Amino acid sequence: MAMAKKGTRVIVVDGERYRWVVAPNDEPGLAIVVLHADVDGQRMVTWVEHGVVVAPGLVAGAVRDALLHHGWTPRLRGRQLTLRCLGRNPNPADLRLVAWPPTA
């Protein structure tokens, strides 16, 4: 899923380049949209509460958590991975991300 480069930022996480942008929406909050910078692969969207400051550290933490715990494959095409950040003051070093919407 391609994302326009205009308006995105680049972040390097563990030697890999990613493009990211914050997409403001009404519900369920703000969406951090991340794609690999060099490959048109799987998109990752992490929802955070309105009012959360989305800084590069938070984005890097979400990328690491998605890779390690949620099976995100940014170099391969695939269905969008959608996660939700629990808590109103997320700590990038200790994020709690869950699959969204929750499965029953």
Structure, explained:
This protein has 104 residues and is of the alpha+beta class. It has one helix at 56-69; strands spanning 9-13, 16-24, 30-36, 44-48, 81-85, 97-99. It is built from one helix and six strands, in the order E-E-E-E-H-E-E. It has a six-stranded mixed beta sheet with strand order 1-2-3-4-5-6. A hairpin with a 5-residue loop joins strand 2 (16-24) and strand 3.
User: Major sheet: order of its strands?
Assistant: 1-2-3-4-5-6
> What's the Cα radius of gyration?
13 Å
Overall shape: it is globular
Q: Give the proportion of residues in helices.
A: 10-25%
How many E strands?
6
How would you sum up the major sheet? 6 strands, mixed
pLDDT < 50 stretches = none
SS field, number of helical segments? 1
The sequence of SSEs as H and E is: EEEEHEE
Mean pLDDT reading: 88
Indicate the proportion of strand residues.
25-35%
Alpha-carbon distance between the termini? Answer: 27 Å
Q: What is the chains' assembly state? A: single chain
* Class by alpha and beta content: alpha+beta
